Amino acid sequence: SALSVYDKFMGEGSFGKVAKCQNKSTCEIVAVKILKDEVKDDLILLFSPPAVYVE
To answer: Per the domain annotation, does 55 fall within a domain?
Structure first.
């Protein structure tokens, strides 16, 4: 994986949690939002391309 996850969560909200991580290749400290399953499902539906039906 390109990120190292710290054992510390920075916060939590209705959409998920935010973890403090480090990019292994650049050593940059970043915040990563970890979405709850139901939020991920909604985003997949929202951003998925429309289905194409072939008869």
So the answer is: no
Q: 18 in a domain, yes or no?
A: yes
Q: Can you list the residues of the chain whose pLDDT is less than 50? A: none
Q: What's the Cα-to-Cα distance from 33 to each of 2, 10, 20, rounded to whole Å? A: 15, 10, 9
Report the pLDDT value the prediction gives residue 44, as an integer from 0 to 100: 66
Angle at 25 between CA 34 and CA 31, to 5 degrees: 25
Domain hosting residue 20, numbered range: 3-47
Query: What's this model's pTM, rounded to 2 decimal places?
Result: 0.57
User: CA–CA separation, 43 vs 35, rounded Å?
Assistant: 10
* Number of domains, the chain: 1
Give the closest residue to 1 by CA, choosing from 34, 32, 24.
Answer: 24
